[in-house]
Amino acid sequence: MTDQAGHIAVLVNPASGHGAGVDSARVVVERLRARGADVRVHRGADERETVALGRLAVAERPDVVVVVGGDGTVSSVLGPLLEAGIPLAVVPSGTGNDLAREHGIPLDDAAAAADLALDGARRRVDTGTVTAADGTVRHFVTVLCAGLDSLTNERTNRMTWPRGPARYLAAIYLEWLRLRRFAYRLERADAPALEQDGYMLAIGLTRTYGGGVPICPGADPADGLLDVTLVQAMGRFRLLAFDSLIKSGRHVERPEVTTLRTPAVRLTAPAGLVTYADGEPTGPVPVTIEARHRSLTLCVPA
Predict the structure, then answer these.
(1) Care to name a GO molecular-function term for this sequence (predicted)?
(2) pTM score above 0.85
(3) How deeply is 259 buried, as exposed, middle or buried, from its count of CB atoms within 10 A (0-12, 13-18, 19+)?
(4) Which domains are present in the chain?
(5) Most buried among 26, 206, 263, 274, using CB within 10 Å?
(6) Can you say whether residue 6 is alpha, beta or left, with left for phi > 0 and alpha for psi between -120 and 50 degrees?
């Protein structure tokens, strides 16, 4: 590699990966400075401060913004990044890291991921927006979900015990016991509305969510389309058996699963259903989800 100089803004979310982002950031800064880059570090004390610092980092017009964190951290600072048109490099330090998985960015080598800011290829990829009924717009880079998965996330966030992965497993079990079906309605400009009762709905730019689960296995992150996967209503124990199919990506071959592609969709469902994207809450239904075709420049392996 030939060392290159340049202004690199490094944005650190200390909460990512239960503190893993702090350790990764140290490696990133040392690596980039050793290669001659002018590195300016922006480290928030919490998520809100991280977002504010992200805007400050973009305003300084760096050559590249390096986000040390997970998919949620990326999406939280995506607005100003897209407005400025500045390339993004990701050093995955979150829980799922599905954006990095999709594009072959090293998951366990912070130095190698940091190198992409200097000599990685520049790839134009899609992003998505979620517009709430009140006009609030949020961005995402992987998958939005609404149903059993989003309710599990919501319950996990409310629980204080147990800690660690056991809390998520407990939340899944509790939501499965009170399993609810939802009358989904998907309105599209390019096709008739789809009305279908179901348990799970995923709308993806990328193939995976939740740390590599291929919920939208046919998704192309640069085609300008949303991949929709809807798991229809079925018996509780039959749904439980679907878990292995989803983890293998073979669920889309089943007649109980509806799939479609569209550039934009308006989602309505019963009151109380929440949506999550990139593992973060994006508000209750109704929402309008749109793909932004190749709107982000991402630093990826050549």
Answers:
(1) kinase activity
(2) yes
(3) middle
(4) 7-119 (3.40.50.10330), 131-294 (2.60.200.40)
(5) 206
(6) left
